[in-house]
Design brief:
This protein is mainly alpha-helical. The protein is about 55% helix and about 5% strand. The protein has a two-stranded parallel sheet with strand order 1-2.
Length: about 200
């Protein structure tokens, strides 16, 4: 994903964003080439308190829907037991079977609608957070002469997990030297959550 971001020099990357850079490296500052830096997008999302709150709200709604659907399903199964004592071709049985089928179809439709609603809310939470991150990174890039921000993954690779190893081998960024702006972006985006309560987005 292509994003504009803050550019900190190798020696000063760990300090705050109010640092000054060599004039020759600033974008538009005399033809300098500009900086290329890296950003752990997943880490930014995990650390953002506003995003964390939205995801927890979505999870809570999902649990409420699940409990409601489970109760309706159990009621449906209980009512279906009435069929056992009815004659196979009786009008009463046909009527009850029709009612049960309608209720079952309505429940499935309601579940699909709930799923769509929650997925839409989740997508919106990701989109809004990403838009905010882009603005923050873009502002930093303009200020510090950054011309490109590469997405990378700062998590350690688990050598005992094949999927994790394959994902690590396919990382776009193999090496960088003090060019990670992730912590600066996290701070610029506002309140952060603790690592223990952050959602797993890897």
């Amino acid at each position: 994903m292509n994003r504009k971001s803050l550019l900190l020099s190798c020696a000063l990357i760990a300090t705050c964003c109010g640092l000054s850079f060599a004039q020759g490296n600033a974008a538009g500052g005399g033809g300098g080439a500009g900086w290329v830096v890296v950003l752990d997008v997943a880490k930014v999302f995990k650390a953002n308190a506003e995003f964390d709150t939205k995801m927890k709200q979505i999870k809570s709604e999902a649990e409420q829907y699940q409990a409601s659907f489970k109760a309706e399903q159990e009621k449906l199964q209980l009512d279906a037991q009435q069929l056992q004592g009815m004659e196979a071709n009786s009008d009463q049985r046909f009527q009850l079977e029709g009612q049960l089928e309608q209720r079952s179809t309505a429940l499935k439709t309601k579940a699909r609608q709930a799923e769509t609603e929650l997925l839409t809310k989740e997508a919106q939470a990701y989109y809004e957070t990403y838009q905010r991150m882009q603005k923050v990174v873009g502002s930093m890039a303009e200020q510090h002469g950054i011309v490109m921000v590469l997405r990378f993954d700062s998590e350690e690779i688990d050598p005992n997990n094949r999927a994790d190893v394959i994902k690590g081998v396919n990382r776009a960024v193999v090496y960088h030297k003090q060019l990670d702006i992730t912590d600066e972006v996290i701070r610029a985006m506002g309140p952060a959550v603790s690592a223990a309560s952050a959602p797993n987005l890897k």
